[in-house]
Design goal:
single chain; 164 residues; mainly beta; six-stranded mixed β-sheet; 9% helix
Amino acid sequence: MTRTSPRIDTRPSSVPGWAVLAFGELWLALPQRDVRQFELASDLEAPGASLAQAAGQFMAGSEESWPVYSLDGSLQLQRAVPETRRICVFFETEGQTRGLLCDRVWSLAEDADLLVEPMPGCIKGPPSPATGLAQFRGQIAIVTNHGALSAYLAYLFEQDPVEC
């Protein structure tokens, strides 16, 4: 009887810096330690039936696929993916790997390269992945993390259930 070894994550848990993801005019800043992998959108396959809300899937192994989602400038799911979305940024939460399609990604080497401000208490509204705000290249970037992104995607799935 053969046993398979558990997959061990060898990524450092304290990788500094930020990945700033562009979705049209909307920018999200995600800590680099939360990024699992970058891939080209051209490497995606059509989503399987169980991934009806996904824009595609990335085959990470012979038996493992990761869903990829596309968000518009209002942070809503898009099924028709703009041609400008060329990069997939993957993150993992609670053992599930998911990806977001982006137009562009900037990599910032140090945590101090982005001055993060907490969300103002006066901002109320529907759920969002925002955990803070930062200025980047003269524009406001929404700061988030893998847990907030995962929770936000779950919220979007509840709001827009798709029959499989």
